[in-house]
Amino acid sequence: MKRRTFIAKGLGAGMAVTASHSILAGNSWDKTEEVTTEGVRVEEGKVRELPVFWDQLTSPDFREAVTRANGVCVIPIGVIEKHGPHLPLGTDVIRAREMCERAAKQEYAIVFPDLYVGQIFEAKHQPGTVAYSMRLMLDFLDETCREIARNGLKKIILVNTHGGNNALLSYFLQVQLEAKRDYVTYVFQAHEDEETQQRIKALRKSTTGGHADEVETSEMLVICPEFVRMDQVNTQSGENLRRFDLPNLNTGISWYSQYPNHYAGQSEGATAELGELVLNSRGGQLARAIKDVKADVVTGRLQEEFFQRSGMPLNTEQ
Fold this sequence. Notes:
It is a single chain. With 318 residues, the chain is an alpha/beta fold. The protein has a single domain (53-315), classed as Creatininase (Rossmann fold). Helix content is 36%, strand content 8%. The strands form two sheets. It has a four-stranded parallel sheet, sandwiched between helices. It has a two-stranded antiparallel sheet with strand order 1-2. A hairpin with a 2-residue loop joins β1 (41-43) and β2 (46-48). α5 packs antiparallel against α8. It is globular. The protein starts with 40 loop residues before the first strand and ends in a 7-residue tail after the last helix. 38% of the residues are buried.
């Protein structure tokens, strides 16, 4: 079922699990659980699917979902901002959620509700933008991860579709080492393989982009076409104005100097075919990343080792 509004949630599929014990207890990075690829659950002789979305699970089902997910939770992250004159303000969180849903249906994980508390100061001059303070952004993300971990999900994957969040999330990863944690946070980064890149290139009509461009617009034509205003796609320019020209330097105003319309690219050539190709590629990549994270016991052990040594640095072998 496709999500056709900002608040309606697509129904996810669960994955049947062969393990019989819960990961809610203990914090051993050496234990893994085997998960099958069938999204069914047997209850009183009936077969039914287990939702992937956190907010669609009942409290009794949540324990089973944590086990099936091998303790993995994915968080779709974006912001509320202008996306050219033709895409909805929630484009980033809509795309992130779609990517997470597609991935979790292939490799079961629990999908946290959309997180739109991100870095978007550069769009405050545009109607509809919601920009939170820096301190709140970090605290909100930190407390969200802590609450997720408190509920038994010790491996958290941040799935971001907003370029303005990249530096924020990179910093957030570094500050995970500030104090001891019993969970690991990962940031997913999509990279199309060469074959997919060539297929995307063949379908594209434009060569420039970066924000509300042909690719993003194509994705939205798949997810929620009723919110895409193709009749308005050329009412504003997505051209780079190149008003900032200082070699080897960058500033906070750089993006505004280039794209004051908060639109980068040409989108009239967008198609659902292109959008489906991109979404399938990135959903598949994320599914593989979820599988890798489930099997990952090294990161947690190294993190625990680091916290132990950082508390007694004079005992660290040279």
